Amino acid sequence: MTPRVSAARPAAAAPGPDLTGWLLGALGALLGLAVLIRAGAWVSCVLTGRPGPDGGLLPALASLGHPVDPAAGWPAPWQLPGPVAYWAGVGLVLLVAIGLGMLGWRTHRQMVGRWAETNRLRHLPGTAHPTEVRRVAGSRAVRARAAVVRPSMDAKAKPRQVGYRLGSMRGHDLWCTVEDSVLLVGPPRMGKGLHLVVPWVLDAPGPVVTTSTRPDTLAVTLRARRRTGPVAIFDPQRLAGLTGGLAWSPIRGCESPHTAMVRARGLAAGAGLGKSVTDADFWGGQTETTLRCLLHAAALDGRRTIDLYRWSLNPVLAEDAISILNRSSPVEGWADALDMAVHTDPRTRDSIWLAVRQALAALADPDVLAALDPKPGTEFDPAEFLADSGTLYLLASSVAAGSCAPLIAAFVEDITETARTVAARAPSARLDPPLLLALDEIANLTPLPSLPSLMSEGGGSGITTLAVLQSLAQARNRWGEHAADTIWDAATVKVVLGGLGKYRDLDDVARLLGEIDELVETRTSGRSGERSSSTSVRSMPVMPPAVLRTLPFGTGVLLLRQTKPAVIDLHPWTTRRDTTVLRADQAVVEHATATGTQVPA
Q1: Residue 89 phi, psi (nearest 5)
Q2: What is the 3-state secondary structure (H, E, C) of 208-268?
Q3: Checking DSSP bridges between strand 208-212 and strand 435-439, what pairing results, if any?
Q4: Reduced to 3 states, what is the DSSP secondary structure of residue 116?
Q5: Which residues, listed in sequence order, are joined to residue 558 by a DSSP beta bridge?
Q6: 305-313 helix and 280-300 helix, angle to the nearest 10 degrees
Q7: How far is residue 459's CA from residue 465's CA, in Å, rounded to a whole number?
Q8: How far apart are CA 391 and CA 252, in angstroms?
Q9: Which residue among 34, 307, 412, 556 has its CA within the 20 to 30 Å range from the CA of 570?
């Protein structure tokens, strides 16, 4: 059998080079050169006082063949100047074109380097479309809830009257209402105060209470807020160094057992009995019970803050408070509770009194004691403060000796409890205008015990809470695992900035942002040449932890109720229309801070 021999197929000719692109490029360059020469001829005519030359782009190119007499290439040579003026005009146009080209390229490079990553993040699969976000956070959506969140307003209200600006998305402003509770999470120097805290304090339609460990927010907003209502500064450690600070007594109003309980709760929260302390709940409860009895006794007998401090130094001196409670207190059992704390087992008593001393340790500082021992008739009245839409700045350092953190916590509890009472008696059971609690650095300052309930319930009473944290781990450390989860879950608006460094926090947020299905095509080939392909589906996070950590400065991830996550642009107060006035105000306040004088009106 003769074997079949197959004829060899000729090799396919290699494709020739594609000259279309080069041809189009050459034509484009020739056209651009003609435009430049034509513009240069017109400029030379203007410079020499001649009318513009007749002719289009072809005469301009023809002049290249007559460098000594370029006018010879034009249909009307007498309309053009001599060769020196002609080529000078062309050179001038060429220099301008080169300069504009270099400027445009530099601007393009800057824009690409600055915005390319942000634009990519805005279009990640699984994130919300701008129309979805505007449907729930646009100005129209905020105004539609005006009558609910502020009974005195209607749908014609401005967004700033019924909400706060969060940022923008593709040029459209995004807002939350005054009944929302907001959690802002971002590490230091990521612009939390620059983008949200300061603008919110400036735009608040009602009273404001803001906490901080530094006077930076105060410097920018003090004079602006003074134009809208009274301003007070509680700075017992004189961090700002301004004269005429507010005096507030922790004893004020403690004739009422309920007020004494609220005040003691705030003081005990800052006593340093963190979750790392064994049986922290027991010792915290004992400390709170002792403090409320001491506060109640001091208020009933008209004692001063210095007397409260003396009682905290030695349980033997607290015998006086037991006598006052037995003689004057309308409530049963409080004298017995204090007597038990004083006369219990010495080891238990010493532990309780150690926490009581810690809660009131700041009173050892004469400046702090003076700020907490006001003269009769000059006490701070929270109800009057709320009615006048005032602004209160609470400044304290949590790392200094004799920290004022417990006093700040008690002060905030005093104001919020008064706000709840006023709201309960108001129409629709809401404060109108609402109270803004801008709690900057609140975890560094003090673990405010009422923060979980404020985040979940405060909005319904007209209390807008903006809690600023450096990380979720910080919240767990200060409030405990369950309370930190409550704060996170209760926040109807969450803004997460870049720079977080703990993988657990990044992973938790990434999981919350959701996942998307991604098609994966797999191709295989065998030794014999056969090939096959298969397609599978795998779940991928919308924003992996690594991407979340590297969010550019000035952007944040917005989690707004049930909507999909969105990457938004934040707006610093330095871009406001009134920036010039604010900077001038800031300079005045900083000068007063440096010289220890009073801020001029």
Answers
A1: -65, -40
A2: EEEEECCCHHHHHHHHHHHCCCCEEEECCCCCCCCCCCCCCCCCCCCCCHHHHHHHHHHHH
A3: parallel
A4: helix
A5: 495, 566
A6: 140
A7: 8
A8: 20
A9: 412
Quick one: residue 555, left, alpha or beta (phi over 0 = left, psi -120 to 50 = alpha)? beta
DSSP 73: G
Q: Residue type at 200?
A: W
The two structure tokens encoding residue 568:
């938004």
Q: Which value, to the nearest 10 degrees, does the dihedral of the CA atoms of residues 408, 412, 418, 423 take?
A: 170
Q: What is the pLDDT of residue 11?
A: 41
Q: What angle do CA 150, 566, 184 make, to 5 degrees?
A: 60
d(CA 106, CA 114): 12
The DSSP annotation for 465-486 comes to EEEEES-HHHHHHHH-HHHHHH
User: What is d(CA 236, CA 404) in angstroms, rounded to the nearest whole number?
Assistant: 8
Which single residue is written with the structure tokens 């229309």? 577
Residues 6+ apart with CB under 8 A from 388: 207, 229, 230
**Cβ atoms of 176 and 464 closer than 8 Å:** no
Q: Which two tokens stand for residue 7?
A: 């004829």
One-letter amino acid at 419 equals A
Tokens standing for residue 332 = 């049963």
Cis peptide before 130 (omega within 30 of 0): no
- Would you state the pLDDT for residue 207? 94
Specify the 3-state DSSP secondary structure of 432.
coil
- Edge to edge, what strands does the sheet with 463-469 contain? 172-177, 163-169, 566-569, 555-560, 493-497, 182-185, 463-469, 435-439, 208-212, 391-395, 231-234
CA distances from 357 to 250, 251, 312, 406 (A): 15, 16, 5, 11
Q: How many CB atoms lie within 10 A of CB 404?
A: 30
DSSP character string of 584-601: HHHHHHHHHHHHT-PPP-
Token pair 């992973």 is at which residue? 507
Structure tokens at 5: 């021999």
CB atoms within 10 A of CB 274: 13
Taking the alpha carbons at both ends of the chain, their separation in whole angstroms is: 116
C-alpha angle 183-185-187 in degrees, rounded to nearest 5: 155
**How does pLDDT run across 44-62, given as a tens digit for each residue?**
888 888 877 877 778 777 7
Please tell me the distance from the alpha carbon of residue 474 to that of residue 338, in angstroms, as a whole number. 34
- Tokens 């409080």 locate to 334
E strand or H helix at 359: helix 346-359
Spatial separation of the C-alpha atoms in residues 209 and 393, rounded to whole Å: 6
Distances (CA, A) of 490 to 35, 455, 486, 493: 64, 6, 6, 9
Q: Which residues of the chain have pLDDT under 70?
A: 1-18, 107-120, 244, 270-279, 398-402, 517-518, 528-529
